[in-house]
Amino acid sequence: MTVLDSRALNRATLARQHLLTRSDTSVPEAVTHLCGLQAQEPREPFIGLWSRLAGFRPEQLDDALTGRTVVRTHLMRRTVHLVTSGDALAWRARHDTMLRRRVLGTYRRELVGIDLDEVAAAGRAAMADQRPRTMRELVQALEDRWPGPPHRVLGELLVAALIPMAQLPPRGLWHQTAGVRNLPLATWLERDIDPLPTGDGDPVGQQLLRRYLAAHGPAASADLRAWCGLAGLPTAVKAVREELVVFRDERGRELLDLPDAPRPHPDTPAPVRFLPAFDNAVLGYHDRSRIIDASHLGVSVAGHRTVLVDGRVTATWTVHHHRLIISPLRSLTALEQEAVRAEAQDLSTFLDEDIEHVRLDTEN
Fold first, then answer.
1. Separation between Cα atoms, residue 38 and residue 30, nearest integer Å
2. By C-alpha distance, which of 6, 33, 29 is closest to 280?
3. CA 60/CA 63 separation, integer angstroms
4. Whole-prediction pTM value?
5. Closest Cα partner for 161 from 192, 125, 205, 116?
6. Residue 35 β-bridge partners
7. Of 230, 90, 66, nearest to 164 (Cα)?
8. Dihedrals φ, ψ of 219, to 5°?
9. DSSP per-residue codes, 163-217
10. pLDDT at 364 over 50
11. Residues 70, 89: contact at Cβ < 8 Å?
């Protein structure tokens, strides 16, 4: 069985994530291919798409959001994602149990004795007038019946687990600041959530597996589980195993992949790329060693924006007082510094935040 080392896996990930060469695909097509973008910080998906798409303009994502081809919703791992409307409707029912369990796992004491189905029914009834509501407004409509749980807990239960919700624009639009207003997905998209198919083989799980491998493979079942938050999809993996190819990583883990997916040569040059916080290319795996060193793993979950140099997380970056500040995690060669500065200048133009200076800290 072929063993793929960390560099081979790195180049495969970069190719699947449109980080080796910027793609000329459309925004909805890119969001579809990437299986969504993590989006609890509203501006971060714009940066992620800028690093992946040739000629990307913020209004393209704005138009997708206001045109309802892309939607903000709680989905994978109970985090807010940008996904296409079709994927939101097709995947939501498969995530329902996980979403409930994660809220209960976080607030088990506060929700003891609460009938979740009754809360869900009351929440849907409150939203039946099709008026967008903040989480606070939704809780106020129900608090007389359930006065026990803290407002924040009851609100998260409703909007992140029990009722499939869309977070409406202007939340998530470029250079706009807006609070979260919720509306049921079915109301916003004018189509019901797809019911879970009956029968064997977990067909929705099979689709999730194929789509995940197209954007993240080769990968182990544990990586798939870490990405979506579901329990490894063993039935789906068993159902499609015959159509997949199998590799091993250097630790001996079994890696699954689509047979015709790109796996570039490990020596393929990788350009500098600036990534947003919580980017798919980093968080889409249980074992992130293909893209980030173990000593820097904390960077990937602490909300730091990162810089890829030779395909690996090598620096963090931020914008402060009209400066784009880059903080390397290791010493950079002169050529690497030049490439980082050049990409940073292009990013400064894109961000349109009156950035006057790019500062590359030379001490790590």
1. 13
2. 33
3. 5
4. 0.95
5. 116
6. none
7. 90
8. -155, 155
9. S-EEEPTTTT-TT------EEEHHHHHTSPPPPPPPSSS-HHHHHHHHHHHHHH-
10. no
11. no
